[in-house]
Amino acid sequence: MTGSSNSTRLDNATLALFQDDNTSVAISVIYMVILAVNLGGNGLSMWLLLFRTTPKSTSIIFMINLTFTDLALGTALPFQIAYQLRGYHWHLGPRMCSFLTLVFYTNMYCSILTMMAISIDRYLGIVRPMLFRRNRESKSIALISCFLMWGVVLIVLHPLMTTDLTFDIPELGITTCFDVLKKDMLPTTVVVLSTPSWRLAKQNQANVEQTTRVSRSSLTDTMVLNPVISKLAGKLVVLASASPRRLEILRNAGLRFEVVPSWFKETIDKGLFRAPHEYAVETAKQKALEVARRMPVKHLKTPDIVIGADTIVAVDGMILEKPVDKCDAYRMLSSLSGKEHSVFTGVAIVLCHEKENEEVDYQLIDFYEETKVKFADLSEDMLWEYINSGEPMDKAGGYGIQALGGMLVEYVHGDFLNVVGFPLNHFCKQLDLIYNHWTSPSEQENVSLHLSHNGSHCPSDVTQPSPILSTQCNQSPSSSAKSNSSLSPRVSSPSASQKHNSQDGPASSPVHKGKRKDTESELGESSWTLVNSLSTHPKDGPESTTVQQMPSRGHVSVTEHEDSQPITEDLQRIVEVMDGFKASKALFTASDLGVFDLLQSRPGSDASQVAQEIKASVRGTECLLEACVSLGLLKSKERTCQRPVYENSDLAARFLRSSAPLSLHGYIQHCNKTVWPLFSHLESAVREGTHQHEKAFGKKSKDVFQDAYCNSQEVKLRFMRAMHSVAEVTGAAVAEAFDLSGYKTACDLGGCTGAMAYKFTKAHPGLSVTVFDLPAILEMSEHFQPLHTDNRVSFVAGDFFKDELPKADLYILARILHDWSDEKVHFLLRKIADACTPGCGLLLSEIFLDEDRRGPSRGLLQALSMSEGKQRSATEYGLLLKNYGFITTHVTTTKESFCGCAVLIAETVLDTQRPYSALQSLNMLAQTEGMERTEGQYADILSKHGFGNINVVRTMNFLDAFMAVKM
Ligand SMILES: C[S@@+](CC[C@H](N)C(=O)[O-])C[C@H]1O[C@@H](n2cnc3c(N)ncnc32)[C@H](O)[C@@H]1O
């Protein structure tokens, strides 16, 4: 090798370029043609210019110079051709490499400069003929110009002569000449590729960017694919995704693959997953498996590896995928504005092993990568400009960080490519684990058991992929690796139902234990090994797939048909709903016993320490803590030969400890002590169609607030804490939903502790808010005042059914109307309408039901408490307000969310043309009561009553609101 020793190795994409023989031959042929034309044409031209042309004008001098540079350039071409035909191997030594590079570039630049000089000469000849005439006699100017350009170019390019431009690539056994620059030649990047072969130009740019990026974390990380790529040679690798970004990332990495987009419809219910990444992983799995199953049947070839991926954005517990329209994009982007969010890409690698009997064994390895991205505060103008660019439409979360969307981003923590669509680095590490760190089957109890069950044996060929076992977990290349099996790729069942308890890290990873414990239920405890294999029988056709599962205590075979949902998936859904009450009660109990507060002040306590502090049994505490870990509320850490220790999860620290600014502690207490007893009498409530206060609390109550809550200080305080905590969490979003600068005074009817009122005054500096609530409630409200009170918030005690309402420009009804009977709702709305003067507004904040009344569950489940009121859809609320002359002008969604639900806001204005009397509206409601309607039917009703379109944005609502303005 002639090149100096190189400390840096090249990435695979670059190596692949040097191995591309076809292209190098094609370029060499082109160079040969150019050489022939160059020598012939320029030789003739030189002869004519030197010997057949007189006088030697400035133009002719420049032409001679130009021909000379072109001829000199031509003389360098044979060396370049030979170099390329030798597979980019330079054998003439570093000096010759430097010299020819100098010749190449000197002539190129001199040629350009000469053409510039000719142009100037022509320009002067035409535009400034007099000046030109004076100078043209002096040919020396032209000659000096030529010598000057040669001199300048040679001085500038002189360092090329003193630098070794060769580079050894031991992996390919070649030495390049000026195709790879060593890192000491450029100040910032690790390895930069230059472009004597023009085809490399674009590729190089990508590589430079990528190399720079990866080098920030670890240079060695970039190399893990290198030994793997040769193992993949000759294998059919399939990408089950049509995303151009994923395609580009993998192509740039030098991976050769076919693209077979998955037909899997991304319709998995997100509610089934405890954490957003589980959803992304499951979708990736389903995409990859669909292609892996389809190919042997439809394409009549079995891939060796299928790669599936799914990228989602998660913010405030919500999963954002691709926006369906501009409004959706707006909703997404405004929910990201000014906040940090997570981008998760779930990746599934399906390894297909064709067996002799035409069966195919599938093994699945999945993992995910999380990258945190912070958006700048986005103005409305900026948001819409970006949305109107069209870029958000096919991108998860509504933005593309690699393009215009990059301008919205303040910082990125983690793998940038993960945000673009594929976590290349993590993927390479997983491939490396699969292909280069294989453990023999005898060491792999679970897998060997599984494989023997499927009649397949671990291959003797080490290039054959093999499941990685828990025994390898300590060899993780990264302690923060987010493979579901921590370091080792999780090899798992293909069914969505077989969701793993995918707490991060080895301690909680089910793979670590070699088996998973499914939810305990009346169906019996089931404990399955994670490793499953799926055998497809092409002759059975695409519809039939056999899933063989390996229970650790006996074998179970389940046959699934692709035209129906897998049975296990349905069961999982039922089991999750069935067990929902256990999860709720575990949360309530942990909260009630102060577990989250304790672990906040003493993280790292074990079960007996916690038990002592909360005055409970060790056994019970241990079960409770483990259950909370499984629900993602706590985190546990294993300690060698000792009991595990516990600490709050981020979720618990933010929302469950009682002193957290966004604590839901008060609301959880209310659910435990008030809602729970009511729901334990649900059967009677459904039979009788009434609330069950008497059965639950032993007291009759006509008015739930005055009779049930206000009679006991304890109950009243608990109720107030509940309202306060929800208002603290959701209030700001409601308050900020509208521009209320036109209003000076507001009255929050049933404003309780004033938490919502403070949110309004904070959001609107010109607004004063009067909190109007029952005297019994307001006498306790001082317990809830913020540290810094605001004299724009005042409190007036009264009963909104009996007493005169305080005068205000804007009336706020937050979570009020759903509690009351139609009669009382109409009475209250009439009172408000009467109190309103032209220009007044009404802001309504409630859970809005979907128009088809199929959701959100939160609203429909709340209706089961059988208060005298009811839950309504946006249209129903619109109709209700319309009865009092209020027209909805628009509905929008607030960006804050609660428990994955967003707030829907509608703006209404008074329709002075159609004032309905309270009686008329009561009659109308009486006719409609109890009927279920589609959105279309509601639209019909509305149009009959002269209402225009109400623009409703559907969300999973926690609180919905209307804005009404009296004209
Ligand atoms: C479900 S809470 C809503 C609290 C608050 N608006 C919020 O969103 O956080 C209902 C409120 O209405 C108040 N309320 C009930 N009946 C009332 C009445 N007749 N007059 C005034 N306030 C009443 C209750 O005391 C309670 O504070």
UniProtKB/TrEMBL annotation:
The chain crosses the membrane at residues 25-50, 62-82, 102-120, 141-161. The keyword Transmembrane helix applies. The keyword Transmembrane helix applies. It is found in: Membrane. PROSITE patterns: G_PROTEIN_RECEP_F1_1 (PS00237), G_PROTEIN_RECEP_F1_2 (PS50262), SAM_OMT_II (PS51683). Its main location: membrane. Residues 450-567 are annotated as: Disordered. Coiled coil: none annotated. One of its GO terms (cellular component) is membrane. GO terms for biological process: methylation. Residues 476-497 have a biased composition (Low complexity). One of its GO terms (molecular function) is G protein-coupled receptor activity. Residues 41-177 form the G-protein coupled receptors family 1 profile domain. It holds the Pfam family 7tm_1. CDD domains: Maf. Gene3D superfamilies: 3.90.950.10, Rhodopsin 7-helix transmembrane proteins, Vaccinia Virus protein VP39, Winged helix-like DNA-binding domain superfamily/Winged helix DNA-binding domain. Keywords: G-protein coupled receptor, Hydrolase, Membrane, Methyltransferase, Receptor, S-adenosyl-L-methionine, Transducer, Transferase, Transmembrane, Transmembrane helix. Residues 450-475, 524-536 have a biased composition (Polar residues). Its cofactor is a divalent metal cation. Homodimer. Belongs to the G-protein coupled receptor 1 family. NCBIfam families: maf (TIGR00172). This is G-protein coupled receptors family 1 profile domain-containing protein. The lineage of its organism: Eukaryota, Metazoa, Chordata, Craniata, Vertebrata.
